[in-house]
Task: inverse folding
């Protein structure tokens, strides 16, 4: 199943969980369950926007975007993080009102059953989505999966809070749990916005991928005839990029140099799926200097 199909499934599950959690709130009157249902609305909006951004990211390069549209996925993550903050504020507002005017909780058994069923659906989908996100390096899919995991933990907290209310009769526990849920939701929203900003600022690829790139270059490097420097990487959505200089003897023909460069590029792209390599050819006795980039030689 592709990334877009998972997001469509996420939209369908979000609609179902909204119905289940709204029913649980309607039966019990619990503001904790109301906060849980509100977060599911955010899931629906986030998954819908993520699907739109993934569709844009999949477009091929064009005249206005010669390097492609891969960064569109980061807008999805930032948008979903913003929605989460809005949901957290709405949850706090509803919880404060209930804290000021406590109300008894009714039909607790049915309410908890509906909440648990929706959590099982979200948990199973989130686990599958996160696995697929790592496989395809999709920021949008990962953001949606992590948000669903947050929803699962939120629901677990609400259920425990309602059980505590039933055991103690302390009605104030319900809105207090809702406020704790809002704090957890806001924390997840901050993490998504931060990761989105890092992606838009051309963050380097993960250290593990950098080590794999370096290992490939080391397999070609030779002290007297071939060396690499100014190796820099960046990530743009599902696409990875590496730029570097390849130094070789000045007497080599352009044909020989270009053939070796092609071999290095192919080895890099075979080692790291989705990688695009740009290699500048330079003679051994020529150095390129950049004020804003520290040189690293292999």
Result:
């Amino acid at each position: 199943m592709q990334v877009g199909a998972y997001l469509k499934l996420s939209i369908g599950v979000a609609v179902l969980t909204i119905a289940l959690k709204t029913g649980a709130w309607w039966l019990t009157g619990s503001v904790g369950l109301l906060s849980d249902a509100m977060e599911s609305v955010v899931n629906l909006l986030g998954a819908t926007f993520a699907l739109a951004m993934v569709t844009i990211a999949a477009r091929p390069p064009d005249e206005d975007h010669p390097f492609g549209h891969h960064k569109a996925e980061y807008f999805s993550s930032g948008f979903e993080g913003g929605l989460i903050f809005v949901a957290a504020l709405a949850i706090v507002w509803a919880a404060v009102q209930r804290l000021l005017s406590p109300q008894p909780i009714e039909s607790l058994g049915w309410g908890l059953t509906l909440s648990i069923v929706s959590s099982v659906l979200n948990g199973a989908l989130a686990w599958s989505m996160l696995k697929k996100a790592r496989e395809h390096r999709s920021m949008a899919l990962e953001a949606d999966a992590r948000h669903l995991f947050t929803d699962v933990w939120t629901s677990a907290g609400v259920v425990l809070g309602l059980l505590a209310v039933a055991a103690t009769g302390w009605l104030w526990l319900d809105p207090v749990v809702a406020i704790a849920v809002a704090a957890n939701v806001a924390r997840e929203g901050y993490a998504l916005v931060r990761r989105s900003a890092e992606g838009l600022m051309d963050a380097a690829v993960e250290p593990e991928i950098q080590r794999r790139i370096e290992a490939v270059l080391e397999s070609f490097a030779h002290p007297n005839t071939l060396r690499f420097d100014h190796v820099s990487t960046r990530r743009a959505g599902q696409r990875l990029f590496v730029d570097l200089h390849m130094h070789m003897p000045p007497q080599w023909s352009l044909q020989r140099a270009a053939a070796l460069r092609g071999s290095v590029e192919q080895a890099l792209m075979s080692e790291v799926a989705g990688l695009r390599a740009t290699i500048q050819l330079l003679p051994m006795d020529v150095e390129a200097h950049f004020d804003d980039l520290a040189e690293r030689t292999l």
